[in-house]
Design a protein that fits this description.
alpha/beta; TIM Barrel; 11 helices; glycerophosphodiester phosphodiesterase activity; hydrolase; GP_PDE_dom; EC 3.1.4.46; PLC-like_Pdiesterase_TIM-brl
């Protein structure tokens, strides 16, 4: 009986120690506002039912609430003016040594052109109309046709236009050579500019970026999975695994409460390890979850939450954040 009581006491003591090491009640982290990551700037919403990687989303646009087109400088400028702290953009290499800022693997969906985006020169891509393919009524009308000519920017244009802003640069392939080319571009930027960037994509290009620029923040599905699994096993102690250091994490909002120390202790640990944290929408299986696009979800954020959130619907989410802060 005495031995059993000793074991029980040890278990209770250990559980209490784990609780104290992870409860946010004892954190001195100051309350703040979320850091807002706008996915592709201000973009047109589309019906996500039955989406595949080959779905032309411009053909299933929802009735537009604004006239901004994703991944354009005009859209980015509007997103920053509306309160975004960070922007995500997509890049493809071009035949003339540039990086085009454009989401799709081919230009067939959104423009009047055809072929893989990377098979064109930046000069030729500048001639295309990035608003050409958008329709909300099955092709009866195309409200942005003619308005997007010349609006596909290059990555160097974006960096020059927004020299002090933070970006997530999404590499759309899993090609190591593309990572090497992007690393060469990034290497020419000042170190303080590099520090404001996160490179997102497949493991191969990200490994190439890391090999050339070890301090660059990166995020891939595999690196995120490795970090979260190892933190799940070791985070109770306050230890931050190497896979979680000096990086960026995208955490589904329905997964976050299960993280050791969530929210404040977890955010403090990641911040001290040089890692940025962004909440995404609920995860339901598959790849990355969507952004937090429903204003009602904003009300479920922890009180005083000062980590990041990612959204595809900035114009809906910002008013909810403003109401929350008042």
């Amino acid at each position: 009986m005495r031995k059993r009581n000793i074991i029980l006491l040890l278990v209770v003591t250990a559980a209490g120690a784990v609780y104290l090491n992870n409860t946010s009640l004892l954190s001195d982290r100051a309350a703040g506002k979320p850091v807002v990551l706008a996915h592709r700037g201000l973009a047109q919403e589309y019906d996500r039912t039955g989406l595949t990687k080959d779905t032309c989303t411009a053909e299933r646009m929802l009735p537009p609430r604004h006239d901004y087109l994703e991944n354009t400088v005009r859209s980015m400028d509007a997103a920053f003016r509306r309160g975004a702290d960070v922007l995500e953009l997509d890049v493809h290499p071009t035949t003339d040594g540039k990086f085009a800022v454009f989401h799709d693997w081919t230009v067939d969906c959104r423009t009047e052109g055809n072929g893989e985006t990377r098979s064109h020169s930046m000069a030729d891509l500048k001639k295309l109309d990035v608003g050409y393919g958008y329709t909300a009524d099955g092709g009866k009308t195309y409200p942005f046709r003619g308005q997007g000519v010349g609006l596909m920017p290059s990555l160097d244009e974006v960096m020059e236009r927004f020299p002090d802003r933070r970006f997530h640069i999404n590499v759309k392939s899993n090609d190591a050579k593309e990572g090497e080319a992007l690393a060469a571009f990034l290497s020419a930027l000042p170190r303080e500019r590099q520090a404001a960037l996160t490179i997102v994509g497949g493991d191969r290009p990200l490994q190439a970026v890391k090999a050339a620029l070890p301090d660059m923040r990166t995020l891939s599905k595999k690196s995120l999975t490795r970090c979260l699994l190892r933190y799940a096993g070791l985070g109770w102690s306050g230890y931050v695994p190497e896979d979680c250091r000096g990086t960026t994490l995208g955490v589904p909002i329905n997964f976050a409460p299960w993280l050791w120390g969530w929210p404040d202790r977890f955010l403090d640990r990641m911040e001290s390890a040089g890692t940025n944290v962004y909440l995404f929408g609920p995860y339901h299986g598959g790849g990355f979850s969507d952004g937090i696009d429903d204003p009602a979800i904003i009300e479920t954020l922890p009180a005083g939450y000062s980590g990041g959130i990612s959204t595809d619907a900035l114009e809906l989410v910002m008013p909810a954040l403003e109401r929350r802060s008042n």
